UniProtKB/TrEMBL annotation:
Organism: Thiorhodococcus fuscus
Keywords: ATP-binding, Nucleotide-binding, Transport
Domain ABC transporter, chain residue ranges per copy: 7-237
InterPro entries: AAA+_ATPase, ABC_transporter-like_ATP-bd, ABC_transporter-like_CS, P-loop_NTPase
Transport among keywords: yes
Name recorded for this polypeptide: ABC transporter ATP-binding protein
Record carries keyword Glycosyltransferase: no
CDD domains per the UniProt record, alphabetical: ABC_drug_resistance_like
GO MF terms, alphabetically ordered: ATP binding
Family annotation (Pfam families): ABC_tran
Domain of life: Bacteria
Region forming the signal peptide: none
Recorded family membership: Belongs to the ABC transporter superfamily.
């Protein structure tokens, strides 16, 4: 990747005044496209996202967006940023069209004709043209998420930061939301932070797994699962029996599914297990000593 395109992060570190080291030296190169950031609670995802959104500063390190130094020139980078927060505030009675108009005005879109054209384009892009005159307060959860993208896309950002986007969406809305993100990712860096491994597996060209403030694995979903080829074994432990030491345990009909990493089958009860991104995630966390409670 040429150094002038995309997002480049080097040696990023942040320790809060209470002594918690939320970021312990993050290095990442992110090209335009959809990039997934996975990690358990407290891994440092929000700290990283807020730092990229210029809402807080790191103790050390460097961030460049399309070659522009974010810490030295935050205002210049802000003009190229879109941030989709988890919640959009309540604006009683205000229609989608009107709220977009206000935000566009705040972002410096003062030419009325150009602003209107941009808003029409954005509404069409997120499939909300028909609902544009309805109050935002009446939108469903999925419509609100897509509306949030339209807000974040004012000014055609080069980096779109999306935090935990699909919680609470039904499958059809989740799918619609993903299609909009994929469309944006054709021309910008879209950084998607989530707990939902399946969203990243289906959608993202590359993924980083963050744990305790460090990147513990990085690559394409195929690379991450490929490293585990022929190394995973599973066994459904009948109810009442003690499960073995495993990289992941989850409840299934009939007992507990135990997934174990080993170069050979631990014993005759285990069958080969085809690795999924979720397994790579649990293996990466297990190697750092972090065990997530089964979902
Ligand atoms: N303002 C703050 N002051 C002190 N500690 C903080 C602050 N914000 C976050 N932390 C701590 O830093 C660590 C990383 O938190 P962060 O919110 O970045 O993680 P996360 O991966 O986003 O987690 P979650 O998925 O739960 O939001 C946690 O231990 C958290 O308690």
């Amino acid at each position: 990747m040429p150094p002038t395109e995309g997002l480049s992060i080097r040696g990023l570190a942040k320790t809060y005044p209470n002594g918690i080291a939320a970021l312990r030296g993050i290095d990442l190169e992110v090209a335009p496209g959809l990039y997934g950031l996975l990690g358990p609670n407290g891994a440092g995802k929000s700290t990283l996202m807020r730092t990229l959104a210029t809402l807080q500063t790191p103790d050390r390190g460097e961030i460049r967006l399309d070659g522009i130094d974010l810490l030295a020139e935050p205002d210049r980078v802000r003009r190229r940023l879109g941030y989709l927060p988890q919640q959009i505030g309540a604006y009683p009675g205000v229609s989608g069209h009107e709220l977009l108009t206000r935000f566009a005005w705040l972002k410096g879109r003062t030419d009325r004709r150009k602003r209107r054209a941009e808003i029409e384009r954005l509404l069409d892009r997120v499939n909300l043209t028909d609902a544009a005159r309805r109050p935002v307060a009446t939108y469903s959860g999925g419509m609100l998420r897509r509306f949030g993208i339209a807000l974040a896309l004012i000014g055609s950002p080069r980096l779109l930061i999306v935090d935990e986007p699909t919680a609470g969406l039904d499958p059809a809305e989740r799918n619609r939301f993903h299609r909009v993100l994929a469309d944006v990712a054709a021309e910008a860096v879209v950084l998607l932070s989530t707990h939902i491994v399946e969203d990243v597996e289906n959608l993202c060209a590359r993924v980083a797994i963050l744990a305790s403030g460090r990147i513990v694995a990085e690559g394409t979903p195929a690379e991450l699962t490929g490293r585990l080829a022929d190394r995973l074994w599973s066994w459904i432990v009948p109810r009442g029996e003690t499960p073995p030491d495993a990289v992941h345990l989850s409840a299934v009909p009939g007992g507990t599914l135990a997934i174990v990493e080993s170069s050979t089958a631990p014993d005759g009860r285990f069958a080969p297990h085809h690795p999924r991104l979720e397994d790579a995630y649990h293996v990466a966390l297990a190697k750092t000593g972090i065990l997530e409670v089964a979902a």
